[in-house]
Amino acid sequence: MNKLLAEFIGTLTLVLFGCGAAVLAGSQVGQLGIALAFGFAIVAMAYGIGPVSGCHVNPAVSLGAFVAGRMTARDMMLYWVAQVLGAIAGALILMIIAGGADSGLGANGWGPGYLGEYTLLQALVFEIVMTALFVIVILGSTGEGSSPGFAGLAIGITLAVIHIVGIQVTGVSVNPARSIGPALFAGGQALAQVWLFILAPAIGAAIGGLLFKSGALKA
């Protein structure tokens, strides 16, 4: 249970800090500030709860770890539950602070009316590729031959860069839980489009996990 509590708290923190920066301070800090909020949240949690649960705080990361042979199917599914509940709790707290869900709560999306108005195909490709790269960094920086103590920095910096590149494309998910939480409260288009932010990160995570499982990226 301590691992599940850690995953719950970590995912809550990621949504509250990252989406919170977009909703409560986006006009002040801009896209770079939002990207750094997501990245720094991961760095903080990596060192705060990493020793407890590994700080996945992302169903895609847990899937990648499972495919790579680093966790059991049972543990993966329990992590998924804790992560989604944490994201929902984080989005709920943000909605209370923001005074409602009119802001969209940092929900992901694509198409007409959403940020850069990128197409479905562009959003799908972005989320698959970026999740695969993100999982590769995570598995590589925490696996055999990695540098102890630096994984949190590598992972957080990678997430920040992904946001710098892609906020205008999809708002950046690479994390189904992070997408589900805000979408549940925002409803409408955000909820109708959340399927992509479950499917695409899962595909990307499987690709990243398979590269390690197959030995293609063996240290």
Q: Could you please describe the fold and organization of this structure?
A:
It is a multi-pass membrane protein. The chain crosses the membrane at residues 35-57, 78-98, 118-138, 150-170, 190-212. It is found in: Cell membrane. Keywords: Cell membrane, Membrane, Transmembrane, Transmembrane helix, Transport. This is Aquaporin Z. The chain is mainly α. The protein has a single domain (2-213), classed as Glycerol uptake facilitator protein (Up-down Bundle). 74% of the residues lie in helices and 0% in strands. The protein has helices at residues 2-48, 50-53, 59-67, 73-98, 120-142, 151-170, 176-186, 188-192, 196-213. α3 runs parallel beside α9. The longest helix has 47 residues, at 2-48. It is globular and about 45 Å long. The protein starts with a helix and ends in a 6-residue tail after the last helix.
Quick recap:
The chain is an all-alpha fold and 219 residues long. It has nine helices and no strands.
